[in-house]
Specification:
The chain has one domain: HUPs (Rossmann fold, 3-Layer(aba) Sandwich), CATH 3.40.50. The chain has a 5-stranded parallel beta sheet with strand order 3-2-1-4-5, sandwiched between helices. By secondary structure, the chain is of the alpha/beta class. The chain contains 6 helices and 5 strands. It has helices spanning 18-28, 50-62, 80-86, 99-115, 135-143, 154-178, and strands at 6-11, 33-39, 70-76, 91-96, 120-125.
């Protein structure tokens, strides 16, 4: 019996983009199980709570063709290597969008290899149409009223629109209270 190939794809996913989904779908072709690790990472000041991000990722993953791979979505707030070990992973999946990502990811892979040389890091280049998508840009464009429909699914777009409408209502209320 062959050993099951388990991978971890970590990220903040604030929000999950079409680029993330492309990496998940492509990684699922190579693995038996893929654990999408949603980092709690409050230090990054996420727009969405961990529970909201978990919900969005689960909704998006449910709609994917997972190529027979089991895709699980879990939150984590530990060292990535500890999370990988907890999930019996032998590989960490990382997406690269541009050359600028490479230096940071290369350093991270080196550190992770020192922490546990039994777990490999596998880099997947973003597909051409997704190379410049980042959650940060999606949030900024969406917050300023730009069209983000080519960068996120309709479900995620709806979550963002609702959040920005709530933020607008809150800022209007705050301005009214100050007057």
């Amino acid at each position: 019996m062959s050993k099951r190939r388990i991978g971890v794809y970590p990220g903040t996913f604030d929000p999950i983009t079409n680029g993330h989904l492309d990496i998940i779908q492509r990684a699922s072709r190579m693995l038996d199980t893929l654990v999408v690790g949603v980092a709690r990472n409050a230090g990054k000041g996420p727009l969405f709570s961990t529970d909201e991000r978990l919900q969005m990722v689960r909704e998006e993953v449910a709609a994917l063709d997972k190529n027979g791979c089991t895709v699980e979505v879990r939150a984590f707030d530990t060292l990535l290597m500890h999370f990988a070990i907890e999930n019996n992973a032998s590989v960490i999946i990382r997406g690269l969008r541009a050359v600028s990502d490479f230096e940071y990811e290369f350093q991270m892979a080196g550190m992770n290899a020192r922490l546990n040389p039994k777990i490999e890091t596998m880099f997947l280049m973003a597909s051409e149409r997704h190379q410049f998508i980042s959650s940060r840009f999606v949030k900024e464009i969406g917050r300023l009223g730009g069209d983000i429909t080519q960068f996120v699914s309709p479900r995620v777009n709806k979550h963002l629109a609702e959040r920005f409408a709530l933020d607008d209502d809150t800022s209007t209320r705050v301005q009214t209270l100050k007057q």
